[in-house]
Amino acid sequence: MREPGELGLASLGRIALVLFSLLLVGTLLAARWPGGDLLSREVAMGVYGLLSLQRPIGTGRSRGLKLLSNSREQPPASNDTGSVPPFPPIFPLPHHWENGSMTVNLVPDFKFEIASSSKDLLSLAARYRKICFPRKARWAPNRQDRSTALTKLQLVVTSPDHVLSPHTDESYTLLLPAGGKGEGGRVAVLEASTQFGAMRGLETFSQLLHFDFDLSAYRVLHAPWQVKDKPRFPHRELLVDSARHFLPVRVLKDLLSSLSFAKINVLHWHLADTQSFPMQSRNNPELSRRGSFSSDETYSEDDVAEIVEWGRMRGVRVLPEIDMPGHAASWCRGYPKICPSPSCLEPLSPVMPTPLTPFASDDTFTVVERLMGDVVSSFPEPLLHLGGDEVNTSCWEASESIKGWMKQNNLTTGDAFKLFLLRAHAMAAKFHRRPVVWDEVWDVVGANLSKDVIIQQWRWGGNHVNRTKNVTSNGYQLIWMVDPDWYLDSLSTGWEKIHTTDLCEGLTEEECERVIGGGGGMWGETVDASDLEQTVWPRMAALAEVLWSPAPTGKRSHELAWSLNVTRSRLKAFRCLLLQRGVRAAPVDNAVARTAPSGPGGCRDA
């Protein structure tokens, strides 16, 4: 037991920390930017990181941030500090930001000003007004100075283009002043080339807002802000699987909305598999009629159109996947002639699917071509995923007719597989679609593949770096989704593993440029509408940050921003935001994903 008056090591440590913090802040104030308006991102993050390392993990709040102030007049103080988000309060981290140390209020009738008659832009502004201001603000004349508060956000979009594509410009610049008597100090400005860049900027703006319950006012902390942002990778996806369990339209729309909050821009929709074929095909009606779980668990053409448009309005493309020739047993129920036998399963796994017959015949490719036509008419997306994984070619050897055809043409099963793939890819090109395939296709076809084909890597194979390098060094583009690191159905894979992934590990700069992005795999064997969101979130947010934010630069401040300690606090704050917006995000600290909180507490405690 410590004697009365004796100082323990912990107390000495706290005293030393306070003295060091005061010295550091004094240095910062002396090195302020000209005019005292902005502290550089590097300086601000350096202070935050040094101070945050001294606090317990997961408190979700930096006690050191209040020290970052200058001598300029501050808005009236408030006691509502318990919900102040960790710094920086933007998820995913932007490409570049600078901030100051002021707090600025927003007037209760804060406006979005748009110099455009675009219906899309007007709809975007109306939607984000509800997102930004879910609570009613009131003015307290005795505690707030309206003459220095922010009055509006000007949205400046230079291109009227409303088409969402793999090449869409998502960059934006956001300027948030610290308030002042002049008009320039009271108007925030968001500039973007496209409405989708403006959408990303509005999401950032929404995350900078803080509602003060004492003042009943919205405020921006650490103003002024200057954010210049763009994604690191153009392709940032979540794969969902509605073939293993049907996902209702409402569930998919809610999921699309949540993806936009993390700046994810692709929903990879795995539409059919061994278990079911839920999408209606106008020209192959028996596929869903006999292949779906039930008539109620089917997507009509109108359903698909609604989902695609909902995604476009949220900056999320919908990329359809029709897996072939494997994972196709559900096709056989409606069109048995195109399959050797629905019961022909490979001995290695009792759940391996039956491939489509490899014949270049009218039966097989008539169905495939008609289906592609239906998919192309429903999905404007220029990419078309054709699968190609886990093909059970042994059942071709078990079929006398197929075996005879291969012998007659001097083909192995590998040759037959290759012919099927190349014909399917040529068919996609005829429909003006660029094929995406799983990485087994690279193993089978290799450099005979058109350079237009994109490889999606899912297999670890002992060394994912070698696999990635093999594809990219041969001039092919690649999407990264390695199992189990980025498979969200792997419930033991934590956000830390996801967040520390380097997609360009071991690659040259030229090879890295061919990695167009990556995604999380939410396979549906053990997921349905009841637990989809809490399995996806918040781990998907960690993945989103890897894909959107610039790689750590080696600077001390940037390394701190990427540190697991700081990221954990920021991720918990983002989870709170998701919960407030109605997204069922599981606790961040879960050892096993989607489990419930271990006990009572605030959203940042879990």
From TrEMBL:
Pfam families: Glyco_hydro_20 (PF00728), Glycohydro_20b2 (PF14845). The active site is at 390 (proton donor). Residues 233-550 form the Glycoside hydrolase family 20 catalytic domain. It catalyses: Hydrolysis of terminal non-reducing N-acetyl-D-hexosamine residues in N-acetyl-beta-D-hexosaminides. One of its GO terms (molecular function) is beta-N-acetylhexosaminidase activity. GO terms for cellular component: lysosome; membrane. It is an enzyme of class 3 (hydrolase). SUPFAM superfamilies: (Trans)glycosidases, beta-N-acetylhexosaminidase-like domain. One of its GO terms (biological process) is carbohydrate metabolic process. Residues 91-208 form the Beta-hexosaminidase eukaryotic type N-terminal domain. InterPro entries: Beta_hexosaminidase_sua/sub, GH, Glyco_hydro_20_cat, Hex-like_dom2, HEX_eukaryotic_N. Its EC number is 3.2.1.52. Keywords: Glycoprotein, Glycosidase, Hydrolase, Signal. Belongs to the glycosyl hydrolase 20 family. This is Beta-hexosaminidase.
